[in-house]
């Protein structure tokens, strides 16, 4: 263990080649460290230290070049060889909580600000491209590693929103299963699923094209989950929570670990085919969807269901007792988007 910064370490990211990593902290510095630990009796020293002008709240590295981005009062793009930013981009005056590079179109990056904005930037033009304002604050975003223009935002209103950056006025999908603020999100390397971490002490795995989660993980001791990551081999999920533990989960809960014999592989494939064949049968569907939940989460789900039904009933009554055409029905997707600024 080393003292890397004075005060909190606010962000960490690895270099694209995996030989070093970067950290930012409350002491207004950006430090680059070797991935390999020091030899016996050797002091751990940072490779580079950059002293900035403001406190940094997040950092992310470019996927192919020696360039990284930090955020705080503004988004700064840095070259690893220089001690001052190449360019600084800002839109509005609120602090920016996270910044992420696009893994496909690597010159694009997105950021979330505390004034409920998600802002997209183009590094080549050194200007912001678009801004979408939601009902509540977005904590972080994650780009789909297989589809260049798709990203998912983790929001304070208990939902996750998948957007296509070419049409930000309506989300592609609203993912709704958490019962408290969603704090982090990360995509699987295949781009077909993502995992979310929530303040409700659980993590959930969502298929990209479904509004409901396919899996939920929780333990008695796990507290508010702050961060989550999907490993590059697509087999495991790691999460960090408030009680200072890191947990390792299987991405596919029923998957058997270790070396499988050919007969075991054949049996697993056959069972999977059977599940797919009969997936729409009512009893099979109920068994495959059923998950045990902690009492706190279960009771909150019931409560929110009652509240949602009351809102729906109120909206129907308002339409019924108003002049025809005066009250328009707004879809669940469009309700949360306040405005799109270009």
Automatic annotation (TrEMBL):
Residues 106-204 form the Translation initiation factor beta propellor-like domain. WD repeats lie at residues 175-216, 218-259. PROSITE patterns: WD_REPEATS_2. InterPro entries: Sof1 (IPR007287), TIF_beta_prop-like (IPR013979), WD40/YVTN_repeat-like_dom_sf (IPR015943), WD40_repeat_dom_sf (IPR036322), WD40_rpt (IPR001680), WD_repeat_DCAF13/WDSOF1 (IPR051733). The keyword Metal-binding does not apply. Keywords: Initiation factor, Nucleus, Protein biosynthesis, Repeat, Ribonucleoprotein, rRNA processing, WD repeat. Pfam families: eIF2A, Sof1, WD40. Its main location: nucleus. Residues 251-337 form the Sof1-like protein domain. It is found in: Nucleus, Nucleolus. The keyword Chloroplast does not apply. Coiled coil: none annotated. Belongs to the WD repeat DCAF13/WDSOF1 family. This is DDB1- and CUL4-associated factor 13 isoform X2. It comes from Balaenoptera acutorostrata. The gene is DCAF13.
């Amino acid at each position: 263990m080393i003292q890397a910064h004075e005060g909190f370490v606010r962000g960490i990211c690895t270099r694209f080649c995996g030989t070093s990593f970067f950290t930012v902290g409350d002491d207004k510095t950006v430090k680059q460290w070797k991935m390999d630990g020091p030899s016996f009796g050797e002091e751990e020293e940072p490779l580079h230290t950059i002293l900035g002008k403001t406190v940094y709240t997040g950092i992310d590295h470019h996927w192919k070049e020696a360039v990284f981005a930090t955020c705080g009062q503004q988004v700064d793009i840095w070259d690893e060889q220089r001690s001052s930013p190449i360019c600084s981009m800002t839109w509005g005056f609120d602090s920016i909580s996270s910044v992420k590079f696009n893994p496909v179109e690597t010159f694009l990056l997105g950021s979330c600000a505390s004034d409920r904005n998600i802002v997209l930037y183009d590094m080549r033009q050194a200007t912001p491209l678009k801004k979408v304002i939601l009902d509540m604050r977005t904590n972080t975003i994650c780009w789909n590693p297989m589809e260049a223009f798709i990203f998912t935002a983790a929001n304070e209103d208990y939902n996750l929103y998948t957007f296509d950056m070419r049409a930000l006025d309506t989300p592609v999908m609203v993912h709704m299963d958490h019962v408290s603020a969603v704090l982090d999100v990360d995509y699987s390397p295949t781009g077909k699923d993502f995992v979310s971490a929530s303040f409700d002490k659980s993590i959930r795995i969502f298929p990209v094209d479904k509004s409901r989660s396919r899996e939920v993980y929780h333990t008695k001791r796990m507290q508010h989950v702050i961060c989550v990551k999907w490993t590059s081999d697509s087999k495991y999920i790691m999460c960090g929570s408030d009680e200072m533990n890191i947990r390792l989960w299987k991405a596919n809960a029923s998957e058997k670990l270790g070396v499988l014999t050919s007969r075991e592989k054949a049996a697993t494939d056959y069972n999977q085919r059977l599940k797919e064949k009969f997936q729409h049968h009512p009893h099979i569907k109920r068994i495959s969807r059923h998950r045990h939940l902690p009492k706190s989460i279960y009771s909150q789900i019931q409560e929110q269901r009652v509240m949602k039904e009351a809102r729906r009933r109120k909206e129907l009554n308002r339409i019924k007792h108003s002049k025809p055409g005066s009250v328009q029905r707004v879809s669940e997707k469009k309700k949360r988007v306040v405005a799109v600024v270009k």
